[in-house]
Amino acid sequence: MRFLHTSDWHLGRSFHRVGLLDAQAVFLDHLVATAREHDVDAVLVAGDVYDRAVPPLVAVELFDDVLHRLAEAGVPTVMISGNHDSARRLGVGAGLIERAGIHLRTDPEGCGTPVTLTDDHGDIAVYGLPYLEPALVRDQLRAPSGGHEAVLAAAMERVRSDLARRAPGTRSVVLAHAFVVGGEPSDSERDITVGGVAAVPAGVFGGVDYAALGHLHGCQTINERVRYSGSPLAYSFSEAGHRKTMWLVDLGPAGEVAAERIDCPVPRPVARIRGRLEELLADPALERHAASWVEATLTDPVRPADPMARLTARFPHTLSLVFAPERTDEDPLASYAQRLRDRDDHQIAEDFVAHVRGGAGPDERERAVLRGAFDEVRVATAVRDGEPSPAKGVSG
Questions:
Q1: In sequence order, what are the residues at sequence separation of 6 or more whose Cβ sits closer than 8 angstroms to the Cβ of residue 114?
Q2: Cys-Cys link to 141, which of 154, 220, 268, 274 (CB 3.0-4.6 A)?
Q3: What is the reported pLDDT for 269?
Q4: How confident is the model at residue 332 (pLDDT cuts 50, 70, 90)?
Q5: Would the CA dihedral through 388, 390, 395, 396 be positive or negative?
Q6: Is the pLDDT of residue 286 over 70?
Q7: Is the torsion defined by CA of 356, 361, 366, 370 positive or negative?
Q8: Of the candidates 12, 15, 79, which has an alpha carbon nearest to the alpha carbon of residue 43?
């Protein structure tokens, strides 16, 4: 059976205030054309269909249009909600839409109920695991603790339990939206850290033939059977080096996996350039970025005059200007920037406590309070965006 694995469409998103709706429409045209051209048996969409819980109407219309075209093409589609989506809103009408071959999986309660597809070699059970916010679904899934690994493991136990009741030789596919150990993040993914821990081991997906992942925006192979498709477009300058693709996955009669990357259309290349302003304006090697969206980092020790106007004269699509003056290691501003580099919100908060106390960092109890505060903010955000409240039968 042949699948087309994609994720992280983020319909309605912009890139540094530049609207991407036209580029997203071109991608969806490409998706439908690829499904037809390669005789795909099903499309798998591993979450973050929209960029926010309440998407703009034009994004909803784009989504509606692609669903109609996939249904008209007779291509079954299995789709889960991601951490950017409102599961409740995305799942409205799922029962009716399913009759057209569009299978929306947004309710954690349905983790163990697959979409069953069939080819010449038998059945394939396709399980959709929507993004599982630990504090909101822990009790529902009867997970022993509230972390990402615990709730995902509990969902996978339901998958394996259902699979064990099926005919021998039944193949299996799981869609999930999570941060799996070994994956490489970018700047455009929303943080899903809970209690200071975000990543889950790939082994949690043991026992299934293929795990189609979403959340990370770079196309990645965690192992032969666990892969991220990545986002179809660059959504941050940290993705300048990404090759945006979908996975074309062939699942053999014994569950063997063969996967090929299918390139996505590139509306405009994304580039990062760095150096002193005069060097950037004169370097002939940078001519290849004249038509790119550009982030320029200026390293001049003293801020030059009219840098953006001068840059856009050579690079008309410059969207971001960053100043990073060359400094010596003894410069206190340089050491502060180095301390913050690659540190998450929890670590920065702990550093702040140590700073105001003259070097004495938080103890274990205080660390737990800080982690709890960050988790409460994330849960409150989820509730605000339309997800079920922890007060309604779900502990925080």
A1: 125, 126, 127, 128, 159, 162, 172
A2: 154
A3: 96
A4: low
A5: positive
A6: yes
A7: positive
A8: 79
- How many other CB atoms are found less than 10 A from the CB of residue 193? 17
Question: Which residues contact residue 85 at a Cβ distance below 8 angstroms, ignoring those fewer than 6 apart?
Answer: 47, 48, 49, 50, 53, 106, 131
**Within 10 Å of residue 295's Cβ, how many Cβ atoms?**
20
DSSP-derived 3-state class of residue 21:
helix
How far, rounded to the nearest angstrom, does the alpha carbon of residue 18 sit from its chain's CA centroid?
Answer: 20
Distance CA 206, CA 226 (A): 10
363 alpha carbon, distance to own chain's centre: 33
pTM of the model: 0.83
Query: What DSSP string describes 77-104?
Result: EEEE--TTS-HHHHTTTHHHHHTTTEEE
Dist. CA 308–CA 296, nearest whole Å: 9
Q: What is the pLDDT of residue 43?
A: 98
Evaluate if residue 387 carries a pLDDT over 60.
no
Which residues is 199 bridged to in the sheet?
Answer: 179
pLDDT of the residue at 393: 36
Q: How far apart are CA 66 and CA 29, in angstroms?
A: 8
Angle, CA 290 vertex, CA 239 and CA 310 arms, to 5°: 105
Cα–Cα distance measured from residue 343 to residue 388, given in angstroms and rounded to the nearest whole number:
31
pLDDT value, residue 80: 98
Sign of the Cα torsion 218, 377, 133, 81 reads negative
Residue 54 phi, psi dihedral angles, 5° rounding: -115, 90
pLDDT in tens, 235-272: 999 999 999 999 999 999 999 999 999 999 999 999 99
Q: Give the separation between CA 102 and CA 96, rounded to whole angstroms.
A: 9
Q: How far apart are CA 288 and CA 304, in angstroms?
A: 24
Q: Which residue has the higher pLDDT, 287 or 192?
A: 287
CB-based burial label for 129 (10 Å; 0-12, 13-18, 19+)? buried
The tally of CA atoms less than 13 A away on the side-chain side of residue 303 is 7
Q: Answer yes or no: are the C-beta atoms of 46 and 175 closer than 8 Å.
A: yes
What's the helix, strand, coil split of the chain in %, to 5? 35, 25, 40
**Rounded to whole angstroms, how far apart are CA atoms 273 and 275?**
7
Go through the chain and tell me how many residues it has.
396
What is the token pair recorded at 364? 């274990």
